[in-house]
Amino acid sequence: MQHHELALAAYIDDVRNDPEVLGIILVGSLARGAERESSDVDVYLVVTDAAYERSADAGKFAWTARHGLDYPGSYIDVKLVSPGYLTSAAEHGDDPTRASFAGARIAFSRDESLDAVVAAISTLPEAAWGERIRSHVAQALLYGGYFLAQGDDRGDAFLVRHAAVHLTLAAARAALASAHVRGSVPLTIRASRPDPTCWSG
User: Fold this and answer.
1) What is the dihedral of CA 124, 125, 131, 135, to 10 degrees?
2) Looking at the chain, which runs of residues are DSSP E strands?
3) Fewer CB within 10 Å, N or C, the chain?
4) Burial class (CB in 10 A: 0-12, 13-18, 19+), 179
5) Contacts of 104 (CB under 8 A, 6+ apart)
């Protein structure tokens, strides 16, 4: 929305002349095109490694600003990052970190490598897919081969439901990950067949 873009432009104007500011990455609902009238503006402020270290020593990693905001209840949510952090996130980032960069847009940059690094963060490296498949298969085997059988043996309806849900999710994730790499995963789950009556009541 226009007022969000105006607020972002005002914030960029406030910080762009600082030589330690390398870029501003727009994230969150505005970057994804899912903002509401009163949504805040989420940004990662990219600074030099030296500036980041100074802020880290002071315990300052995030803050809010109200630059150019003329709509109620909203603000610019600033989180501080460094080139080193972004590179590490691209190579080793966990799912929540990668998800936080979904739809990310470079709003300002004086670092030509920023676009490529940000694009890499939201994409799981190909080398990690094999481990991802093995992890999901292990979870499926645990829930299907142990917890589901335990719930069935004990007549524990809650445990059966819990195990069945997590078994299904893990198996689906393994199948999706396997499809991504065009491979196949032998998913053999040995568990006793639960009595349907234990699902009721």
Assistant:
1) 0
2) 21-27, 41-47, 62-65, 76-81, 105-109
3) C
4) exposed
5) 25, 26, 27, 31, 44, 118, 121, 122
Structure tokens of 201? Answer: 């009541």
Distance CA 155, CA 38 (A): 50
Report the chain's C-alpha Rg in angstroms.
Answer: 23
CB atoms within 10 A of CB 171: 20
- The full set of domains in the chain, from first to last, is 2-121 (3.30.460.10), 126-199 (no CATH)
Q: Which two tokens stand for residue 163?
A: 């195990």
Whose tokens are 């043996």? That residue is 153
Contact 182, 126 (CB under 8 A): no
Q: What is the pLDDT along the chain (201 residues), one digit of tens a residue?
A: 677 788 888 889 889 999 999 999 999 888 888 777 778 889 999 999 999 999 999 999 999 888 666 666 668 899 999 999 999 998 888 878 888 888 899 999 998 899 999 998 988 777 777 888 888 899 999 999 999 999 999 999 999 999 999 999 999 888 887 776 655 444 333 334 444 444 444
| Mode of pairing for the β-strands spanning 105-109 and 41-47 | unpaired
